[in-house]
Amino acid sequence: MKKKKHAATVWKGIGCVVFLFIALFPIYWLAAMSIRLTDEMKGHISVIPHSFTLEHFAQLFEREGFGQAILNSAQTTLGSLVISLLVGICAAYVIARRRFRFGFKQPMTYWVLLVRVLPPVAFVIPLYIMFNQLGLINTKVPVMLACVLINVPLIIWFLLSFFQELPEEVEESAKMDGATEWQLFRKIVLPLVAPGIAAVAMLSFMYAWNEYTYTVIFTRSSTNNTVPLALALLNTEDNLTNFGLVAAGGIISVIPIALFVIFAQNYLISGLSSGAVKE
């Protein structure tokens, strides 16, 4: 019996290693391509690099203006994330805790979900007309607001279940102790739903950072390019064979997402451990 359990554990370990290798190998290959010399990537390419260079990374910032693209992506992503969380969290709490007349609550939640289900390109024409009339085309504001439009419904729909599952007795006891609505929301409710906020913040950050469609349509100058658009522009006729340059850009674009996920994951774990309700 012990031998069978040991064999099952070994096979599970082997399976985990295989799946981990499959998942991480593309990232390794991207990193390996970014540090190879261009001459080494002609013809047969070995799995292990035989050369090491940071020329591709230096070229990205010196010649391709990748630093400005990172700054633009950081501004649009963080700006849209803050606005989306403020609007989405408050809206989700109101929908979950307040009663609406004429049975308006359920249709409103499905309407919010419909906005998120529709493809982003469906909003391009009305958004372009609106931003063009406001004189915002060729700025970072339309891209940021478009990300807000896509992320707010996701945040509302995701957090609705978290707010609805909170015991109302906790809020009632806080009100009996003299807590105001703002104190109740900030000191009682938000810490209890911290895991959900951390999870939806990660999803919203990744979408906004990888946004490409709205950036192509709403920006016209290279000074407003974000990281996805800058990466796409690297793959031109001149740089089509420069795989090292494209790989280096891919590695740089992954780093902010990885750092944000690690940072948000700490809040996710702390929220899970601190959200218990004492009887």
Can you walk through the features of this model?
The chain is mainly alpha-helical and 279 residues long. It folds into 2 domains: 2-34; 63-274, MetI-like fold. It has 12 helices and no strands. The chain has helices at residues 2-34, 55-62, 66-97, 105-117, 124-133, 141-165, 168-176, 181-192, 194-209, 213-218, 227-234, 243-274. Helix 2 crosses helix 12 (243-274). The radius of gyration is 24 Å and the shape is globular. The two termini are 43 Å apart. The model is unreliable at 271-279 (pLDDT under 50).
The rounded Rg comes to 24 Å
Question: Uncertain segments of ≥5 residues (pLDDT<50)?
Answer: 271-279
CATH topology of the largest domain: MetI-like fold
CATH H-level homologous superfamily name of the largest domain: MetI-like
Assigned CATH class of the largest domain: Mainly Alpha
The CATH architecture of the largest domain comes to: Orthogonal Bundle
